[in-house]
Amino acid sequence: MFLMIIAACTETQKNDVQIGDNVSLRGTWKLLTGTLIEKGDTTTTDYTKDRSFIKIINDSHFSFLNHTLRKDTTDFSAGGGTYSLNGNNYTEYLEYCSAKEWEGHDFSFAVRITGDTLVQSGVEKIEAQGINRINIEKYIRVKN
Predict the structure, then answer these.
(1) Using a CB cutoff of 8 Å and minimum separation of 24, what contacts does 46-49 make?
(2) Among 7, 44, 67, 113, which residue's Cβ finds the most Cβ atoms within 10 Å?
(3) Would you say residue 111 has pLDDT above 90?
(4) Average confidence (pLDDT) over 17-21
(5) What is the DSSP letter of 139?
(6) pTM for this structure?
(7) 67-to-11, 25, 77, 96, 118 alpha-carbon distances in Å
């Protein structure tokens, strides 16, 4: 019994997701801006105006929810899966997605947390869809 308790505590410590100075990646994050750079064109979306996008990260999984704030449409997307974190290298393994063609793909990002701000940047590439772009997202931690 004692060994089971020690193993359980060790597992929790192994899955404790930290970046740098013991800043945790776990939590709920609200997307502020998203910048896509594709074929030399840059598009920045302000997610504080007519959209709401949150990402939730726990010890083993991430999920995201995105919808418009307009009442005259049902524009909604969601997804999630597992992830790995090695230093500031964060990789999402997308297992579930409302856009089915995105399922089964991995997306690697460099992540940086400063205060309550998370910035992740990396390449999104899905050859079958012709997607090959740089994605930079800036989030703010949601307070309880």
Answers:
(1) none
(2) 113
(3) yes
(4) 51
(5) E
(6) 0.82
(7) 35, 23, 6, 17, 20
Tokens at residue 79, please? Answer: 């997804």
Q: Name the DSSP class of 142.
A: P
Tokens of 34: 């998203």
The span from the CA of 92 to the CA of 98, in Å, is 16
CB 134 within 8 A of CB 120: no
Nearest Cα neighbor of 110 from 79, 94, 82, 134 is 134
Pair 98, 80: CB distance under 8 Å: no
Residues 79, 94: Cα–Cα separation, whole Å:
7
Query: How far is the CA of 107 from the CAs of 85, 87, 99, in angstroms?
Result: 12, 16, 15
Q: Is the pLDDT of residue 2 over 80?
A: no
Q: Which two tokens stand for residue 56?
A: 């939730």
